[in-house]
Amino acid sequence: MLNIIRGDLKSKPAATSLLIDAFEQIKENFDGSLYIGYPIIGTSEGGFQIDALLVSPTKGVILFNLIEDPKKGIDYEEIQDENYQKFSSKMLQHKEVVNRRKIAFDIVTASFAPTYAAGKTNGDYLLFTSKSELISFIENYEYDLESYYKPILSIIQSITSISKTKNRNYVKSVDSRGGILSRLEASIANLDSAQSEAVIETVDGVQRIRGLAGSGKSIVLALKVAYLHAKNPEWNIAVTFNTRSLKGQFEKFITNFSYSHQNHEPDWNKIHIIHAWGSSPKNPGIYYNFCMENKVVYRDYEDARGIAPRYGEEFDIVCKEALETVKSVKEKYDLIVVDEAQDFSPDFLRICYKLLTKNKRLVYAYDELQNLNDKQMLSPESLFGLDDETGRPLVDLKNEEGKPKKDIILYKCYRNPKEILTTAHALGFGIYRDPELVQMFDQAYLWRDIGYDIKDGELADDKRVVLERTNRTSPEFLSEHSPIDDILRFEVFENNETQVKYIVEEIWKNITQDELKLDDIIVINPNPLTTKSVVGVFRQALFDKGINSELAGVTSSPDIFYSDKYITFTGINRAKGNEAAMVYIINAQFCYAGMELSRKRNILFTAMTRSKAWVRVCGYGINMVELKNEYEKVKRNNFRLDFVYPNEEKRKILKIVNRDMSDDERRSVERNNNNLKDIVNDLQNGLIKREDLPRDLLEQLRSLL
């Protein structure tokens, strides 16, 4: 089927609408993509936009010039020539679509002028003056583009600029991990239809992009920023996020994509890649700037700790305070793009919304399962509120037929093999945990949204259901490069010493035999409070073998995560938003049991889904044995999720039992658990009698429990 991607072509609304209508009538008849207002081609004069582009394996490449007002006497032949010259010069830069000195496929140019009173084709210059003429031509025209279809898409989507960033010419063995990785990276060469829509389709207002780990959210956002910057160079654009190391990634990707669209660097006076919090004029942030420019009290992390009710809510409380105390807000940006929105409170997103000019162009992307606390994304109505005059929601994210999408879901995962992703979900939710689940979506349909199909049963409260990822959402090539037992391993050790020895020897082998680079490997410690203290012994052992390492954000720059000069050790917060071929998770036993279990399981999910090829989940002790047992159940079920969907009451109980806690709550629970254990032991051992306990207290306990 033809996928129609509606970019911004507001200068020609009537012709654009009629062109889309024509292709809507025949889109079921052939495969391909029709881009409106895209691509923008970088030239020596800057960005050159083609009105519409059809790329189809059976219809070839057709460039459209749309003529809105025939009275202006536009020379459509000259425009078609320019379209051809700009597009062909772009193609000639890529040897995969060139045969000797010529482009290896035909390029057809056409003009669509539905308001022309009369017109006719002049030789090679096609002119269509009605939908029927255009439809008739397309249905009768055939061109075999199969061999070049995917490379052409990769070029016009600017994805080739990503694939060229990592050179693996050093690889000697095609069967080494380096050789496998080279093939994997070459295979992920194109955006799918949902990703293309997320990049190009733009609304005046709020747009939400949802996708699980590895679905390409950050790449899509970078492409979107570069595309909109090329189209609207006067816009002030902010890109914000939680993980500081994402700044370098966004800078690199936006720069690469801007060269593709405009043939020069972006204007960094108009694009601001800025952290959410910020601390000074040299290290600005959305919140910091908001406070400084709107005369609101600014609080740094130390101040925030003093007023936050619990660990992890420091930023939430200062954003709430800023909104409550601000008197008026200066509008600053034409577009704000928020990555990792699941990590932010509603108040931060409301700050972003208030900073926008009248069109309120806010794009926020998230994956709820990568949430490292108990925040949940609110509905748009709850998040942005109601209009004071009409009482209607300020933001409505319902998609309308024939219009750019406001709510886009990226179903397909291009990073994790199916086995890694399904296991991460199984452990994250505790699907095979004994005796019960850890957490569950309140909306059962979200399982479909993140790419699972129902293989058996029913996705409803108190019903058994069997869920599985298919090739539609988890491409097979991600799983075919290695045996399952090599893609994913759970390793149980007697103690930390044997864990350290194993990981150091494996990394040594990865570098000296497997042809992996240092920046292909990351080591993640899941407990954010112990990372500094526990990784030292690993790093020293690697250093003794001549392998350099850094602790991300501590011994290296907080804005840099990778380097080809060292192995990166990291806590979970800095790991988010990053990926590596080989991921080692140390001390994974931390995630098996205990208080705040939802957060711990979300940490394990996030850590596992950093991998684009192989994962080693390592730990020691009985909790690690039990965690591996959970994995073995996933494996025995052929990487399907088989469980009874908990009803609303059970879901509420899970949220309470496994919730995040403040320090005071945690200490109180620990103290009372110990007291109860002492009472039970004393009763069992006869040190106290039941009659020794106050009857009224027993009755109160009985009524509460």
Briefly, what is this?
The chain is globular and about 105 Å long. It is an alpha/beta fold and 705 residues long.
What report would you give on this structure?
The protein is an alpha/beta fold. The protein folds into four domains: 2-153, no CATH class; 187-410, 3-Layer(aba) Sandwich (Rossmann fold); 418-652, Rossmann fold (3-Layer(aba) Sandwich), CATH 3.40.50.300; 667-704, no CATH class. Helix content is 38%, strand content 18%. The chain has a six-stranded mixed β-sheet with strand order 1-2-5-6-9-10, sandwiched between helices. Strands 13-12-14-15-11-16 form a six-stranded parallel β-sheet. Helix 1 packs across helix 3 (131-140). The chain is globular. The relative contact order is 0.09. The mean pLDDT is 88.
* β-strand number: 25
Q: What is the count of structural domains?
A: 4
In spatial order, strands of the major sheet run: 1-2-5-6-9-10
CATH architecture of the largest domain: 3-Layer(aba) Sandwich
